[in-house]
Amino acid sequence: MTTFLSREVQDSLAEANLKRLRAQSRLCVHAGNSVVRILEFRPSSFSIAAEDASHVGGLVDIYDGPRHLYQALIVASSQEDGLMSYEFKRNTLAAHGPALDFERKIDAPAGLIEAQ
Fold first, then answer.
1. Strand pairing report for 58-64 and 34-37
2. Which residues contact 96 (CB under 8 A, 6 or more apart)?
3. CA-to-CA distance for 36 and 69, rounded, in angstroms?
4. pLDDT confidence of residue 73
5. Rounded to whole angstroms, how far apart are CA atoms 29 and 42?
6. CB burial class (10 A; 0-12, 13-18, 19+) of residue 38?
7. Residue 48 CB: number of other CB atoms within 10 A?
8. Who contacts 70 (Cβ-Cβ below 8 Å, separation ≥6)?
9. How far apart are CA 85 and CA 35, in angstroms?
10. Rg of the chain, C-alpha, whole Å
11. pLDDT at position 23, please?
C-alpha cells in the first residue's frame, strides 16, 4: 500500500518538524560573528536549518547555553528536509583552563600555609 501526500502537506509537515527541533535544542554553533542553533547533534555530525547554512563552516565553537563544549573543524555533508548536515573533521573538548606543563600529583596539597 502506498500513501500519497500533496506537496502542501509535505511542506507543512517539514515546517512543523523544524519548529519542534528548534524548540527542543539548546546547542548552538558559533562561527565567526554568527550564532546558529543546532537542531540535531550526533557523535560524528550535526544538523542546522538549511537557511542558516551559509554562515557556518570551517573552525567553529559549539556551546550548550553559555557553556563551551567543543571546538570543531567541520565540513558540509548533505542537505535534506530543510536540514543541512555537517560532519566533524576534528572535534575537541573545550579546555576550561590553561594546559599544564607538569604532572599534577594525586596527593599534592591544595595549598601551603607558611609560618611567620
1. unpaired
2. 68
3. 15
4. 94
5. 14
6. buried
7. 23
8. 61, 62, 91, 92, 93, 94
9. 16
10. 21
11. 67
CA distances from 6 to 3, 12, 15, 80 (A): 10, 10, 14, 18
**Amino acid identity, position 21:** L
Q: Which residues pair with 92 in a beta bridge?
A: 71
Amino acid at residue number 19: K
Per-residue pLDDT tens, the chain, 116 aa: give them: 457 778 887 777 777 777 776 666 788 999 888 888 898 899 999 999 888 777 788 899 999 988 999 999 999 898 887 889 999 999 999 887 777 777 878 888 878 788 77
Q: What is the pLDDT of residue 90?
A: 94
| Integer Cα distance of 74 and 62 in angstroms | 11
Return the domain boundaries, the chain.
26-93
Fold of 26-93: Thrombin, subunit H (2.40.10)
